[in-house]
Every structure is written in structure tokens, then in C-alpha cells.
Amino acid sequence: MAEDIQKIRNIGISAHIDSGKTTLTERILYYTKRILAVHEVRGKDGVGATMDSMELEKERGITISSAATYCEWNNHRINIIDTPGHVDFTIEVERALRVLDGSILVLCAVGGVQSQTITVDRQVNRYRVPRIAFINKCDRAGANPQRVLDQLRSKLNHNAVLMQIPIGLEGKLSGVVDLVSMKALHFAGPYGENLTVDDIPDHLLDEALTAREHLLDVASMFSDELMEAAIEDNVSEEMIHSALRRGTLRREITPVFLGSAYKNIGVQLLLNGVTMYLPSPMEVENKAKDLNQGEKEVILSTDPLSPLVALVFKLEVTPFGQLTYLRIYQGSIKKGDEIVNTRDGKRIKVGRLARMHADKMEDIPDAGAGDIVALFGVDCFSGDTFTDGSLKYTMTSIFVPEPVISLSVSPKDNKSEIKMAKAINRFVKEDPTFRSYVDNESGEKIVSGMGELQLDIYIERMKREFGAEVETGVPQVSYREAISARAEFDYIHKKQTGGAGQYGRVAGYMEPSEDGTYEFINKIKGGVIPSDYIPAVDKGFRSCLKKGRLIGFPILGMRIVINDGQYHSVDSSELAFTQAARGAFNKAYLKAKPVVLEPIMKVSVECPSEYIGNVMSSINQRRGFIISSTEDGVFTAVDSEVPLAEMFGYATVLRSLTQGKAEFTMEFSRYSKVPESKAEELKKRFADTVKGGGR
Amino acid sequence: MDNFTEVSPLKLLEMSSRKELGRGKLGVLMARAGVGKTACLINIAFDKLFRGEKLVHISLEDTPEKVTSYYHIIFSDLVKELDIQDETESRMLFDRNRMILGYINNSFEIKRLKENLRTLVDKIEFLPDALIVDGIDFEKVGRDTFEGFIEIAADFNVEIWFSALSHRHINDVNERGIPYPCSRMDDLFGIIIQLQPTPEGIFLRLLKDHDSPVTEAACIKLDPNTFLASV
Fold it and tell me: Is the Cβ pair A627, B122 closer than 8 Å?
């Protein structure tokens, strides 16, 4: 069983847009006999490459969604997770990276290390994923693999080592010299499927010997055996592979392959590299959080006989129905098993289990630790963890932050209304930070999330993937109100309109709560408010928190203490006390010096160090404050706090300030008081809306 | 917030000739491993922050997150010790007056530090009054690096405090009484102080006082838990 797991490779392919990632994937699937024909990304046959299963991706020639596909090579089972090739949509990227054990970094032989290469490489680095590199498009005019190799070293800090040298370049590219076997390899047949092995051409011999010497120098740093053998000139291929594997797994070497996926050159050798140098699931440490121990981290064992722990990393609607992509970290699943969702405790029966090949599938009876599979018709959210029920483990924190930005969306026509609803339902399941509700007062559908870019992508997907034509409002920051001082209240709700009256008196005080939560403290003595009515008083106060009186946004928690009151044996009721609480709240709220709060985001920018000044200025100009900056090699990371309201359009600004070489992530940090002038502007806007009969 | 001076480890400098390190000068806090060097260094940083000064903390070992958490933990202790009422506001003010520059994986160079400080001054108008440098290996770093720091101290008109690790097994002391590893270049520093754990408690002792002689009595006792001066 362990031997089986050792032959699994879960890999991602990361690259700059247009470096040929999808063509490479297509060739990999062709050589591994998962597809019988090859279609180009922007092919004339209208079929499109197999991995890009979403319409939007097909049209743009980019990959947004992370489809998974399975193939076999040299007795190894390879799951390819198609990672997003752009930086804007973090949750997709993070989820895809989470399930990878290794990665192929694809570079263009002409363009070399470009801004997005830096970004995707840094993302892979953040998840400590070992990688090998492939210099693609060596057949193009201007191809210069040596320059790309130098850039890998200087711009990405990789200890990059060439595994091959090209035979010819640009239009004359005809094969590669393998520096391990010291043989020339050519790729014959319509799609290069027939490898022919020859001696190294004389004119390349010196170059090949020099490159091999360098390869041995680098590899021998990871093997004393190889070092000794190199001195004695007695090196075997196995020694080189084993040393390179050790260095790659430690992320201290990046073996570099080269060729042209489009011209069918070099892809098979890259596949050999995947099986030889990238880790099996057993060589990667994975951790879960144990909810029975306060989310304490526990190390999972890649053992099919241990209790099941599996992560849902992708939901997809396909012509076959809803697909749930699952990475099994521990234990195994077979058809007919009952599995339990840690989030809600729901038991689910595994009906169909499949290996996916982009939009084709293969039914399988079972799957074990280390594998990536798809389930059918399972009702769950992306990011959910499934176990066999004996453990309460989760692979992701169950904490989901409140959305900080919202946007009104409305369908342009009736058809779009249904499609929009479908799309929203789907997105809510895919992404726990994406929410949706109907604003009672305006009747508008509101979607909310954690950032502008996130919402932009969902709106785009509504249109492209679901065919929903929608109009959107201006993004709104989710402001909050909070009191800043203690205020007393003593309020009598009294109503006599014939029949039974309403009577209730509530007295006490409200004060700010330090942790921002709502707290209701009952200090009533002697039954001046009967205990039956106390929950109604609490309900009354609670209802007032939904909408503040300064700007109409929810009120962040406060402590309400009631210590006195009065009831009437006939006229008091739950309703009367709820109303009394509301009256008391309204009376005290403005005395409690309410303030307007805005979401403050923790913004982290990573960029080549030369742009640090521009980045710091841009944060400073946005009312942000810089907490720290960290230099690591040629990159610098700047951590800061910036009000969300100032972050609209920041991606574009950052791109232009750094020639697209920076990336940023943003997450909610806390609420903080807005500057007085801004508060006044918001209050005025709210007052105008109220006057106008709106919100 | 004034009562920090009463418990600050830099109270020791009241026994020195100039009562301070002074702008343009370098100072070192020496201690053996595990004695409380970082805690004491951060208390020196708080001495500056409580005076309303701005500082840049330069870390060559720990990530900024770790350094921030050191500051927050020590500040929480200070809240109790000094009975600070406006905790949230003080914390926010200190956070804003403190910048952390981290240099990981051997990324540190004097030239880069100079550029980064210039960026802070020019781009975000953060003008530091002091630098705190933690994690410099005094055994490996040569005079040229500290001469570079002297230039920085002069150019930016700041005082700079370093921490230096001394060793139990190396007892080399130069003729001026300065222990290894500072003994090789004590002429570059204005003030050298040392944390000395003894059975009677932890003491902070003045070893070098600019160009003035130092007496045995130039020493204060620190609270072993907080590394603040015992009152």
C-alpha cells in the first residue's frame, strides 16, 4: 500500500499567462494517453484545450478555475491541479496550492521570468512546495534558455540547474541533450511521441560536458556518495537522480528542463522529472486542526488504514451534475461509505467516486490517502473537511470573517434573474466569504465579500459561466457604528388605545464592550420586571443593533445592563417590554456618543526591493500605516494596515507603480474610528437618504 | 505615561557622565544566551517610545510578526506594572511610532539599511529618533559594519542600540574591562552595558561610559520577570 502512495504525484503547473501552460498540460495528457487528440488553447478547431473547462477561461486563454485531472506515467499516478495563472483571486489560488505536493514552473524561453512568474513562484514558495522548471517555447524567435536560467537564479533566487541543453534553437530546435544520460534525444512522430536516442552531436559536446559538470557540482552538495564518485569519475545516473531528488525535496535545487510543448519537444523528459524529483504524498507533512482540542494542530499520517480526513478544495457544476473535488490526506474512501462533514456534522453516503480528467470522468471503486478524487451530488461547501466520523478534524479554520464590502446586483432581464440566482447559490457554496441577501428597504439583491477583486471575479463569472446579464452598483464599504461612552436609560412604554393596553418600564445603562460583542446583563432584583419578560427586553435591544442611527449601518456590540423597571399586571406583555427596550435604546444611544467605524484591512505587499519606496508611498497616501518591511533576498514584503475605503482600485495602482511586479493580499483586521470629516460626510449622506425616503 | 523612566533599564545611564547614549552614538547591551537580552532590549525600546520618540527596530533573526508579538507581550506586562489606563490608545500610538525592518536569509547589508531608512524618511515621513538592532552576530561581523552604523547614526541623527551575545566559556576581557566579543571594537561604542545574573538577582552593569571612567557602583538591579529596574 505504501508503495502505491509513493507512486502518487499531486502537482500543479504554475506560470505566467501565455507561457504555454495549457498547451503543456494538453501534451502531458496526450503522452499519458488520457486524450487521443491535441487541441490548442486558441485553436481553430473550436474545441479548446482540455484543462480549461470554464467558458471564460477558454475565451481568454487563461485559467481561473482549478480543475483536476489524472494521468499515469512510468507506473506513477499523477494528479494535475490546474492552478490559476493570475494573481487576483486569492481563494482559488490558495485552495489549489493547498492540495499540491509539487509543482512545475513554466517559463517562456523568450519572455523569461516575468512579473507574474515572480508572483506565482512566490505563492508556491509560501506553501513550501518543491518545484521543477520547464523553459518552454524554445522554438520561438528570440528564445534564450540560458538567459531564463540566469533570471531564475537572480530574480527568483532558485538554485536552478540545467538538466538538458537544447539541440538547435528558435526555428532550428530539434531536440535536447540529456545531461544525466549524456545522450541526444529527438522527438519523432506527428506529436513527438517517438523518442529516439543518439550520441551527442560533436558541436555540442563541449557545451554538454561543461553543463554536466555544473550539474554534478550542484547535485553533489546533497550526496557525499555522488561527490566521491565524481572525484573518481565513477558517477551513475541513479546517484545523480537521488541527489537531485534530495535537493529538490528540500527546495534547495530547481532542476530545469527545456523544450517546446507546441513543437512536442521535451515534455516526456519533464514527466520523467515529475516522477523522479517531486515528492509523493508520503514525503509531505500535512496538518489538520482538532476541534475537540480547540483547533490544536495535529499531523496527519498518509496511511489508508487510518481514519479518513479529506478536504473539499473545489466544487464544479458539470454536465454530469455537481462535482466535489476532494484531496484525501489520511484514510480511504470507497463507494457506499458514509462520511461526515466536520463543519455541520452531516453524514453523507458516497454514491459515485470518480477520477476526473477535466470534463471527462472515470468511475473508481475506492481511493486512499494521497489521492485526489471527485464525488457526485454531495451537498457541501468548498473548504469543508470530511472524516469517517471518528475524528473532529478540519483542514481549514472554521472561522469565517464577516464580509467588509458589498455591491448591489440586478439582472438585466427575466432570464438573467434565474441564472443570477443559480450563480449566487453556487458561489456561496464555493466560497464561505461570499454572501448574498436582499436589502429589505431597497429590495435590491446585495452580494458581499472580502474585497473588490473577489466580487469583480464573481460578477464576471455570473456573466460568462452562467449567462446572467447583471448590472452592479458602486461597491459599498461595510461601516459600523459603536458607542464610546456609558449612558443611562429609563424608559416607560405606555399605550392605551382601547382594549388591553401596553405597559413596560426599563431602566439601566449601556456601555462600550471591549471585545465588540453584544452582552446583555440582567441585574433586576425583586421581580420589578418578571423573569418571563426579560428575554423580550433582550430581544428589543438586540433588534436595535441591526441599524444605527448615525449612518444606518449595524452597531458593533455593546454591553446593556438593566437594573430597574416596572410592569403592570394587566397591560404588560412581551411586546410591551420589547417596545420599551427599543425606546430605551433610542433614548440612550445618542447620549452614549456613538462613532462611525470603518473596516481596516491588513495589507501585505510583496515586490522586488527596488519598488519598496513606491509601495510605501502608495500605502501612506491611502491613510495606511506601515507595520514592518522584511527583506528576503531580492524581494521585500511590506505589512501594513489600510482602511478598506481607500483600497478600491489598488490592484491597478500597484501594477502601474511596480511594472506589475508586486502582488498584494488583503484581509480584514479590525474596525477603527473613521476620521471626523469622513464621519460627517457619511452622516450627511444617510440623512439625505432618509429624507429622500430611502434606506 | 511618564512613570516608565522610574523603571526603565536605561535608568542606569543616570549614573553615566552624559546621562544618555546620545544621538550619533552606538550602545550595546551584552548578555549571555537565555538571560533576557531581547526582553531588556525591548524595554530600552519602550524607554524611547514612552518619551514619545520614534524608533526603527531592525531584526536580523526574527520575523517582524515575532518581533511585534514580543512588543505586545512586554507591553501587556507594562500595562499591569505601570497601571496604564488608556491601553488601546497607548498601544496604537506605540505601534505607529515603531517600524520593524526585518532582514531574513542573510539579506542584511549596511547599504540596504541606509536605503530603507532613506525611504522611510522621504516616502512616508517616518523620522526615527533611535534604532534598535537585534540579531547581529558580533563574532562574525567586522568593524566595517559598525563603522557603517556610525555613519547611519550621524546621517539620520539617531542613537543606535545593539544586543550582543557573550559566552559563559569565553572569559576574554580587554584591558578596559570589556568582555568578548565587544572587546575587539569597544572604541566604536559610546555605552556598553551588561546583564549579569547572580544568585542575588539580575543586575545591569555599566561597562563603558563614553570617554569617562566607570565605577563598580554603576549598576542597577532588575526585576527578573519584567527586566524593569527594581524600584
Answer: no
Alpha-helical runs (H) found in A221-344: 224-231, 237-249, 267-277
Grid coordinates standing for A620? 501612506
Chain B positions in Cβ-Cβ contact with residue A617 (cut-off 8 Å): 123-124
Q: What is the pLDDT of residue A595?
A: 95
Min Cα separation A271/chain B (Å): 32
How far is the alpha carbon of A510 from chain B, nearest alpha carbon, in Å?
20
| ipTM of the complex as predicted | 0.91
CA atoms within 13 A on the CB side of A502: 13
pLDDT tens for A242-264 read 999 999 999 999 999 999 988 88
Radius of gyration from C-alpha coordinates of chain B: 17
Contact B119 A616 (CB under 8 A): yes
B-chain CB neighbours of A616 within 8 Å are 119-120, 123-124
The residue type of A159 is N
For an interface test with B, the pick among A627, A640, A658 (most B C-beta atoms closer than 10 Å) comes out as A627
Listed as ranges, residues in chain A with pLDDT below 70 are 1-3, 17, 35-67, 83-94, 115, 317-321, 357-360, 397-401, 441, 693-695
Q: Render pLDDT for A365-406 as a digit per residue (tens, 0 to 9).
A: 999 999 999 898 888 888 889 999 999 998 876 566 678 888
Question: What span, in angstroms and rounded, lies between the C-alpha atoms of A552 and A607?
Answer: 39
> Which of A626, A628, A633 is opposite residue B124, by nearest beta carbon?
A626
Chain A residues within 8 A of B95 when measuring between CB atoms = 625, 627
Number of neighbours of residue A539 by Cβ within 10 angstroms: 15
Q: Is A465 helix (H, G, I), strand (E, B) or coil?
A: helix
- Nine-digit cell at B194? 551588561
pTM: 0.70
User: What pLDDT, in 10s, does the model give residues B118-128?
Assistant: 999 999 999 99
Q: How far is Cα A658 from Cα A610, in angstroms, rounded to an integer?
A: 9
pLDDT value of position A397? 64
Q: Give the pLDDT of residue A24.
A: 86
User: Is A626 at the interface with chain B, CB within 8 A?
Assistant: yes
- Give the helix ranges, DSSP H, for A114-255: 115-126, 145-154, 202-220, 224-231, 237-249
Work out the percent of chain B whose per-residue pLDDT is above 90: 71
Sheet with A175-178, side-by-side order of all strands = A164-167, A175-178, A183-188, A194-198
**Identity of residue B17:** S
- Report residue B34 as a C-alpha cell: 537565555
Query: In whole angstroms, what separates CA A281 from the centre of its chain?
Result: 21
**Residue of A631, A642, A658, A667 to mutate, testing the B interface (most B Cβ within 10 Å of its Cβ):** A631
| Per-residue pLDDT, A442 | 75
Look at B104 and A631 and tell me if their CB atoms are within 8 Å.
yes
Question: Which amino acid is residue A688, in one-letter code?
Answer: D
Q: For testing the chain B interface, which of A513, A595, A629 should be mutated: the one with the most B CBs within 10 Å?
A: A629
Query: Which ranges constitute the DSSP H helices of A221-368?
Result: 224-231, 237-249, 267-277
Per-range mean pLDDT, top range of A354-368, B167-181, B212-226: B212-226
- C-alpha A253/C-alpha A131 separation (Å) is 8
Give the phi and the psi of residue A512 in degrees, each rounded to 5. Answer: -65, 145
Q: Chain B residue closest to A622 (CA)?
A: B124
Cα–Cα dist A349/A353, whole Å? 11
Phi, psi for residue A599 in degrees, rounded to 5: -70, 130
DSSP element (H, E) containing B210: none
pLDDT digits (tens, 9 = 90+) for B130-166: 999 999 999 999 999 999 999 999 999 999 999 999 8
> How many angstroms away from the CA of B165 is the closest CA of chain A?
23
Q: Out of A609, A616, A625, whose CB is closest to B123?
A: A616
